[in-house]
Amino acid sequence: MSNQTISVLTGAATIFFSFVLLYLKRISLTSGSGDFAVDLGVMKVSSTGTALGLFLIGLILILVPVMGFPPRPSTYRVNGRVQLSDPRDPRLLTQVQIFTQYPPLTLTGNGEIMGLQVWRDPDGNLPFLGFSLGSSHPDFSTEGIDLNQEATIAGGVVTLKTPVTLKSLGGAK
Fold first, then answer.
1. Which residues pair with 42 in a beta bridge?
2. Contact at 8 Å (CB) between 158 and 135?
3. Measured over all CA atoms, what is the biggest interatomic distance in the chain, rounded to whole angstroms?
4. Phi and psi, residue 137, nearest 5°
5. Does residue 84 contact residue 165 with C-beta atoms inside 8 Å?
6. Distance (Å, rounded) from C-alpha 53 to C-alpha 31?
7. Rounded CA separation 34/44 (Å)
8. pLDDT tens profile 10-27
9. Are 131 and 164 contacting, i.e. CB atoms less than 8 angstroms apart?
10. pLDDT tens for residues 73-113?
11. CA 108, CA 80: separation in Å to the nearest integer?
């Protein structure tokens, strides 16, 4: 649970329980041990009771996070598989690089994508991913996929619909 959510829930609980205390006559708007005053520029609020103070504290706890902090972008974990069209050396899968960040991520020995996190851009789109064996293996293609069209999203997990296949270009064997 985020700090903003906790603050809003705490503010709502403060306001709710201040109304409960008013209803039970444990506190009142007219009697108290001291004066309470707030000058908001546009209006001045004052009371001799603590009820209004509790209400204002709750209101501040709700308004500050709602107005002051933009929501964090959601992160997604990517699941999927990469394979070679010419599996002459399965160890090559450990050399595949995924280009979304630097340094690029690599795969497990069986082609599983591990630990890749992606974010939506301001328009709500997921990124394109590029897969390559790099310049040390020019005999294999570089493949790119659009996660918006070639993946499914469930909760915080993006799963590739089909494995990405790096095709042999018929180079040195």
1. none
2. no
3. 91
4. -135, 70
5. yes
6. 13
7. 17
8. 889 988 988 887 788 777
9. yes
10. 567 777 888 887 777 777 777 767 676 655 566 677 777 88
11. 11
